[in-house]
């Protein structure tokens, strides 16, 4: 092998061995191996949760997880993707809810079934402390759930491993929406501006600008003051 | 993973960091900026574009990769009889990102029978990847008019005034809508929305939800779509629009992406919210874009007779990842610069004011790495400049990066890079299609009755260069406007007999020009077998 040739590793995609160059992410390794991904690929940047992947490496009994787009393929990896997970989701009208524990339990009656096994935390590719988030939910600490779960990408891996059949990511988004709508202080300056616009106070100034020629606009633009 | 020369360069960056904290690089004068763009922005390179030979924009220059699709023949054979319509709705929404979601929620709220179809999953779109923020003139020292001026100046003064007026006037309304939906924006203790500058803004009007702004907006809209039981079908891309004998749009030919089976949906009004062309890898650049950003909507609308505007203006985001290789092209949000990080070359010197508009910063980085030869080079030969992220902690306090940029920090951490201590290497990446389908202030296609367009697929709003924070905004503004108008239009629309006659006509036109060997829309980029 000449130094310029990339080193090749063997990975097992759903049990079948493939040779791929070292250094590729799991997603690119799947594609290199010949897979055209329909499911199991989304933003390719770690934000959308489409590419949850479960794997094990040879000789290790532990199951590991990662996002295929964010995890580098390792030699001897046995992997499969979880492109869809059938999870229960509550139907609700946000404007009719109260931000309290009773709401969480009414919509997700399985919530108190959590056995504290920590499987959810171990499996989270965002490294969130999911068990702590669920503990907060069970205490009705909606602000705490909202804050701690904020980076959740709703990939569903937590639910897939939960022996109590909880749907942690749906509980978390419910808490975030309750927190934002009812518990976070409202943005009064925004409401004031909305009223100004609805009452037509911004129309004249905008119409004036819309009537200017590009040259006139440019002059105004170049002369505008910039907030420091 | 760093080469010795990279390490040497990083030491220089670190050594003069305290000196640079006091140093403000001057902004470009208007004439300087103009000549910089002409010399170094990829749009102005002779080899990146060509005039399209067929259709409503015949003779207009656009990127080769897009022209290839506009000059292709249809992926649907118009001579094969269509299956009978599987449903008839008031408003068909094609695309399940932020624009499509906003349109669907709005149209259904007005009583329209809605169907949303999307190529991948609901919410799989560029919306979810937008980290930085959303602009709206919400503060006392700001106004829609000041926002208007910034949008126009950023766009090169070729934006459509009525679209910019709609954008800036509706911005606070959309933000309020999100607040009411329980979208978790970052706030002061008293409820004041946090806001910062973005490139080209004259007021601090960039609102954000940590650095998951788009993700937070998308998951909230998706959750509400599910609550409102908006009918939707995933893994169901559109292949062509259907027109009646008068050229009015009355639905689309769709495909079950997994089984390949075609499907026809008849609609009183059709909203295209299919996004942009990032995954065409214009000029060979890597991209920040979602897997599905393959310009499908542009291709379908073009065949239906819609004109495209400003398609020769491509947005390269100045700060795409240049190292590590596994993250190549991924977005490093502009917010990193907004809160203090400077751009420095291999010698650790500043070379551009960090918050110039995106086109200018990109051109300056390309100049630094090419003509001036002052880029740092990675093990794979990729040149880049440093974004000096550790400055953020010096200016804003320790812990700022993990608090304000958790997504960014996590992405680098996965590859063993601690951006609180080490600068990160970046190079421009393909980010946004500034142009798109010609629309009016209601999101209506100018040329095709019954067709609406919202989001990145639409053109004219941002002129030749969109400012940061105005795309999360435009998907909501024009999604809602299109949804509203389409719901009203649906009541009185009377589309005639639908067919693919226009597609047959396009196929003949490309064949007559000796083109059409390839087929479009392509639906997904082809990465099979590539390393």
Describe the 3D structure:
The complex is a heterodimer of chains A (228) and B (531). Chain A has 228 residues and is of the alpha+beta class. Chain A contains ten helices and five strands, in the order ββαβββααααααααα. Chain A has helices at residues 26-32, 101-107, 119-123, 130-138, 142-148, 157-161, 168-183, 188-198, 203-210, 214-223; strands spanning 8-13, 16-21, 52-57, 64-67, 77-81. A five-stranded mixed beta sheet of chain A has the order 2-1-5-3-4, with helices on one face. In chain A, a hairpin with a 6-residue loop joins strand 3 (52-57) and strand 4 (64-67). In chain A, helix 5 crosses helix 7 (168-183). Chain B is α/β, with parallel strands linked by helices and 531 residues long. In chain B, the strands form six sheets. In chain B, strands 4, 5, 9, 10, 11, 12 and 20 form a seven-stranded mixed beta sheet that branches. In chain B, strands 14, 15, 16, 17 and 18 form a five-stranded antiparallel beta sheet that branches. In chain B, strands 6-8-7 form a three-stranded antiparallel beta sheet. In chain B, strand 4, helix 5 (98-109) and strand 5 (114-117) form a beta-alpha-beta unit. The mean pLDDT of chain B is 96. The chains are: A alpha+beta (228), B alpha/beta (531). Chains A and B meet through helix 1, helix 7, helix 8, helix 9 and helix 10 of A and helix 6, helix 7, helix 8 and helix 14 of B.
Helix-strand layout with pairing:
The complex is a heterodimer of chains A (228) and B (531).
Chain A: E1 8-13, E2 16-21, H1 26-32, E3 52-57, E4 64-67, E5 77-81, H2 101-107, H3 119-123, H4 130-138, H5 142-148, H6 157-161, H7 168-183, H8 188-198, H9 203-210, H10 214-223
Parallel strand pairs in A: 1-5
Antiparallel strand pairs in A: 1-2, 3-4, 3-5
Helix pairs in contact in A: 4-5, 4-7, 5-7
Chain B: H1 4-15, H2 17-21, H3 30-40, E1 49-51, E2 61-63, H4 64-70, E3 73-74, E4 87-94, H5 98-109, E5 114-117, E6 134-135, H6 144-154, H7 161-180, E7 195-196, E8 206-207, H8 213-227, E9 232-233, E10 238-243, E11 249-255, E12 262-272, H9 296-303, E13 308-309, E14 314-321, H10 335-338, E15 343-344, H11 358-369, E16 376-377, E17 383-387, H12 390-396, H13 400-404, H14 406-413, E18 424-433, E19 436-438, E20 451-453, E21 458-459, H15 471-492, H16 501-512, E22 519-520
Parallel strand pairs in B: 3-22, 4-5, 4-12, 5-9, 12-20, 19-21
Antiparallel strand pairs in B: 1-2, 6-8, 7-8, 10-11, 11-12, 13-19, 14-18, 15-17, 16-17, 17-18
Helix pairs in contact in B: 3-11, 5-8, 5-15, 6-7, 7-15
